[in-house]
Each structure stands twice: as C-alpha cells, then as structure tokens.
Amino acid sequence: MTARHIYIHVPFCRRRCVYCDFSIAVRRTVPIAEYLAALGREWGRVRPAADAITTLYLGGGTPSLLGGEGIAGITKMLRVGTGLAECTIEANPDDVTPDAAQAWVRAGVSRLSLGAQSFDERVLAWMHRTHDAAAIGQAVAHARRAGFSNISLDLIFALPGSLGRDLDTDLDRVLALEPEHVSLYGLTVEPQTPLGRSAARGEIAAAPEARYEDEYLRTLGRLAADGYRLYEVSNAARPGFEAVHNRAYWRLAPYLGLGPSAHSFDGSTRWWNEAAYSSWRRRLERGESPVAGREILRPEQARLETLYLGLRTADGIELPDPLPGGLAATVSAWVAAGWAEVEPGGAPADAVDRMRLRLTPRGWLRLDELAAAL
C-alpha cells in the first residue's frame, strides 16, 4: 500500500483514567529504548511500501512520556522533519516542560493535543489524571514559548452530577487559553473500565440524556460565539486549524498504523495489530508480523462507512437527484425537526445543482439513529 498518513500508538501511561478502555501499558519507568527498537522492526517491515508521508499522529496512551529524545527518535526513524503538513503529539499537561516542548518542535512536531479534560481539581482527581488545573495553563505557556502555534485542548462533558462540576467555568478557562482547536468528548461508561465497574455497583450514575444534550449544545454555543467552527461532531477549530490527519480518516483515505493496537487501512482492507504491548513487542522480536486480524470491506460496507463518516462532519453527504420518495420524506422530517439542513453544494464543482445534507448540532446528537435510518 501507499500511506501518506501515519498513526503511531504509544501505549504507556502512568496510571489508567477511570473512563479509559484504550490499549495502554501502565509503567513507572517507560522503556523508551525497548519501544523504539520494536517500532523500528515494525517500520522495517512496512517501510518499502510507504509513500511520502503527509501527516504523522502520535497517539496513545501518553506519547509525551517518551520525552524529547523519544519523539525525536521516532521522527528520525521515519525520516520526517518540518516538511509535514501536520505532525501531532498527544500530551498530558504535566509532561510539557520547556525542554520537552522545544525538543518536539526541533523534531518536527507542529501540533500539540493537550489532554486537559477539566479545570476542576476534584474532577481531575476523580478521573485519576496525573495533572492539576494549574499544569494546563503552564503547559500551554511552555508550548507557546517553544514555538507551537497550533494547540488543541480536550474537554470532557456530561460528567456524573455528583461531582458538581461547573461546565461554564471550565469553558471560561479553555477560552482564556485561546487554543486553536478544541475536542469535545461526552463521558461514556464502558463496562471494562474502573468507571464501568463503579457504575455496575451503583456507586455513580451517568449523566441523564437531557443534561448530555444541554451541555453539548451549550458548549458548542460558547465556542461558536468565540469564533470556533464545529467541523466534526466532536471537534471545533478556528479557521484553518482543522485537524488534517483526522480529516483523512473521515474521508476514508488510506493510512498506516504502527504500535500495539494500531489500525491500518488501504482503501479496501482494514487490519490491526496485537493490542497488548508485550505481545506486539515479542512478535516483532521473533521476526513475526504484529498483525492480529484483518477484514476486507465489502462494497456495501464501504458505502455505509462513507455515509456515516460524511454525516459526522460539517461536509455532510451528497444527495441523489432526484430523491426517492421515502428518502425525500425522511430528509424533510429531519429538516422540520431541526436535525439537518439541505443546501446546494455538490461535487464536482460544476455540479452546483446537486444538494448536500448536513446535520445540525441537534442532529449530531442523534447521529447513529439518523445514519441507520438512511
């Protein structure tokens, strides 16, 4: 395959957050050299088939635990530098020191995705985050001084009411830091997480649906009033700062994933690596492929994914012309309910008579239901 978009999964964390169901490896001491050696073996297996890299995304886990030297080792291995359209690192605020931030910039990292989640000390402690509220502002300041001009902040909404979190205060703090991008995540209770087990024991309750909707819409309103545009169901950005790498996923562009649990896609086939760090590493040490499974997308699956991914973005989907009767009635009902908008804007550019269906924020709250209806 050719892969212009590369994702690298760095699994290490100091502790597991209460809501986390990702593939992570909790370590007091991060085995940076060991991890880079295994990553180099995997890269050696796929590198001859890789095309010129456009975007690189370092996710996890906590990639910032690799420090400046570890991240530089990755970009040197891939032979990428400052010429990428975008190079993102996910970071915990307490890992963003002046030295680390400067080293990341020298290594070619151009975008910082900061896991803030909340500015409420009680909430951060409940989440098992490793940072306090002050560390978020300090991290942004360190990153700015190092040269980062593209910073994204993560924010979680719809937390259990028993925590007493003040969402508007958190939004005030986010906007005061003036990030170029904000990612929003409604808290979900996954069964195999500390939060899921706590909920099963009746110790804590998820936010009711009405409050989930209220907080989502309220957050979008605050961001829009401050100049952000919601370009995907969970992502808002100032003009020109939309995530290039993530938009490639939503457009079903081919991508290559390296590291434990990383997924890859070549346009028709999807495959994924061993999830556990130790299993992924051992297979590579034995000279074996780390791939744990794969699936070939049937044409109908590809159409459904295109439909779903289109609906979750501000681009929307192109409607057939003329609309079949049943589809016309469905779309009309969505527009009347305030869930969707229909407007000119087809592709290619000369097909201006075609129509596009775009979901509104209220429609995005019903994304799965509406996609299934189509």
State the gist of this model.
This protein has 374 residues and is of the alpha/beta class. The protein is built from 14 helices and 17 strands.
Task: Write up this protein.
The longest helix is centred in the middle third of the chain and has 17 residues, at 209-225. 39% of the residues lie in helices and 21% in strands. It has helices at residues 32-46, 67-78, 98-106, 121-127, 133-146, 167-176, 194-200, 209-225, 244-250, 277-285, 299-311, 325-337, 361-364, 367-373; strands at 5-10, 12-13, 25-26, 55-60, 86-91, 111-117, 151-157, 181-186, 229-232, 235-237, 256-258, 263-265, 269-273, 291-296, 317-318, 340-344, 355-359. The two termini are 32 Å apart. The protein contains 14 helices and 17 strands. It has a nine-stranded mixed β-sheet with strand order 9-10-8-7-6-5-4-1-11, sandwiched between helices. The radius of gyration is 21 Å and the shape is globular. Strand 7 (151-157), helix 6 (167-176) and strand 8 (181-186) form a beta-alpha-beta unit. The model is unreliable at 346-352 (pLDDT under 50). The protein is an alpha/beta fold and 374 residues long. It has two domains: 5-250, tm_1862 like domain (pyruvate-formate lyase- activating enzyme), CATH 3.80.30.20; 300-373, Arc Repressor Mutant, subunit A.
